[in-house]
Specification:
The chain is mostly beta strands. The chain is built from no helices and 19 strands. It folds into 2 domains: 86 residues, Immunoglobulin-like; 92 residues, Immunoglobulin-like, CATH 2.60.40.10. The strands form 5 sheets. Strands 12, 14, 15, 17, 18 and 19 form a 6-stranded mixed β-sheet that branches. Strands 4, 5, 7, 8 and 9 form a 5-stranded antiparallel β-sheet that branches. Keywords: Disulfide bond, Glycoprotein, Immunoglobulin domain, Repeat.
Length: 184
């Protein structure tokens, strides 16, 4: 069967003008290569390191905004295509939020975990990210918490949040510092 491949951005979220991000493509196979596409046009051939390939964007500008995807090839044959990850580049004008997790970073399986993204802005909403996923896992409105019930090993990972306001136009914050959640 065809291999399944994944694509994600790290760190997750909107990138600041002049900032940096990495687009990560991975596959269960390791004897081919990836072609990276932006808005449907090939931009780069990526060599595998193990079963992964990375594309680094530095000094980001509006030109880096777009829909990126990976194709996995062996020889000249495309064996799999990834989903699409949307990369956005914006100026940041909101303060950096703080992500907290209760009861803590290291929890027993089965407990409920509460994520809170705090920002010093009266009308901001926030997005909660888990590294390795294409999209935010949750929108959190101001003064709202996100509860993960009965956590399990699959909930482990590196979490972050990013906030925005949308009056006449979107205004963004930087991405919070990351939190690693471990489930025993």
């Amino acid at each position: 069967g065809a291999p399944t491949i994944s694509i994600f951005q790290k760190p997750a979220g909107v990138i600041p003008l002049g900032g940096a991000t990495t687009i990560c493509c991975s596959c269960q196979r390791d004897n081919g290569y990836f072609k990276l596409y932006k808005n449907g046009r090939q931009v780069r051939i990526l060599e595998l390191r193990g079963s992964k390939a990375e594309f680094f964007i530095s000094n980001a500008t509006q030109k880096d905004t777009g829909a990126y995807s990976c194709h996995y090839l062996e020889g000249d044959t495309v064996l799999a295509r990834s989903e699409t990850v949307e990369i956005q580049v914006q100026e940041f004008s909101l303060p950096e939020p703080v992500l907290s997790v209760l009861p803590g970073h290291d929890v027993a399986a089965g407990v409920d975990v509460v994520f809170r993204c705090t920002i010093a802005h009266p009308k901001a909403g926030c997005l909660l990210y888990l590294e390795g996923l294409i999209k935010a896992i949750k929108f959190i409105s101001k003064d709202e918490d996100y509860t993960l019930s009965h956590v399990h090993k699959g909930n482990e990972g590196r979490y972050s949040c990013q906030c925005f306001t949308r009056n006449t136009s979107f205004k963004w914050s930087a991405v919070s510092k990351t939190l690693d959640l471990a489930v025993r």
